[in-house]
Amino acid sequence: MKHSTPSPDHIIVLRIGLPQPNFPILENHLWEVSDPEHHRYGKYLSKEEVEELVAPHPDSLNAVNEWLAMHGLGEDDVVRSPAQDWVTIKVPVSLVEKMLDTTYHVWKHEKSGDYLVRTTSYSLPKGLHEHVDVIQPTTMFA
């Protein structure tokens, strides 16, 4: 149930998932190393090899970096996963609302009484659509 409007300076930890264009290759590796009949059975990939396969395309990194910079966010504001396929930023609601062209609300779970800060819709600049797979927390209430 919609409860209230969050304070503009309420901090949201925003996670941005970038596309992993080589994920099908990783999935194929997983099937091969798991199949006792395959010659690659048991020959697992290293952490570095997996990170290389899930890394986003450089164009996606550049597009997201430019978008963040347009909103005053630089490398010091960003935490990246080892493969750079996830970007995490801690930003006030007021900035997230500008970045995502949305309005956040505080929602209260009727049975548990728990509160969440979420939105019911958001948008990204058209040029980012192919470079971002997911942004959370936004519309997911789970």
Topology:
Blueprint: E1 2-4, E2 11-17, H1 23-34, H2 47-54, H3 58-70, E3 78-80, E4 86-92, H4 93-100, E5 105-108, E6 115-118, E7 134-136
Antiparallel strand pairs: 1-5, 2-4, 2-7, 3-4, 5-6
Quick structural gist:
With 142 residues, the chain is of the alpha+beta class. It has helices spanning 23-34, 47-54, 58-70, 93-100, and strands at residues 2-4, 11-17, 78-80, 86-92, 105-108, 115-118, 134-136. The chain has one domain (2-20, 55-136).
- Low-confidence segments, given as residue ranges, are none
Instruction: Please tell me the overall pLDDT.
Output: 95
User: What number of structural domains do the residues give?
Assistant: 1
By DSSP, the count of extended strands is: 7
Biggest sheet descriptor: 4 strands, antiparallel
Strand order in the sheet with the most strands: 3-4-2-7
Helix and strand succession?
EEHHHEEHEEE
Helix/strand-derived category reads alpha+beta
- What sort of overall outline do the alpha carbons produce when their principal axes are compared? globular
Beta-strand residue fraction: 15-25%
Write up this protein.
By secondary structure, this protein is α+β, with helices and mostly antiparallel strands. It has one domain (2-20, 55-136). Helices cover 29% and strands 22% of the residues. It is built from four helices and seven strands. It has helices at residues 23-34, 47-54, 58-70, 93-100, and strands spanning 2-4, 11-17, 78-80, 86-92, 105-108, 115-118, 134-136. The strands form two sheets. Strands 3-4-2-7 form a four-stranded antiparallel sheet. A hairpin with a 6-residue loop joins strand 5 and strand 6. It is globular, with a radius of gyration of 19 Å. 11% of the residues are buried. Residues 1-141 form the Peptidase S53 activation domain. It comes from Amanita thiersii Skay4041. GO terms for molecular function: endopeptidase activity; tripeptidyl-peptidase activity.
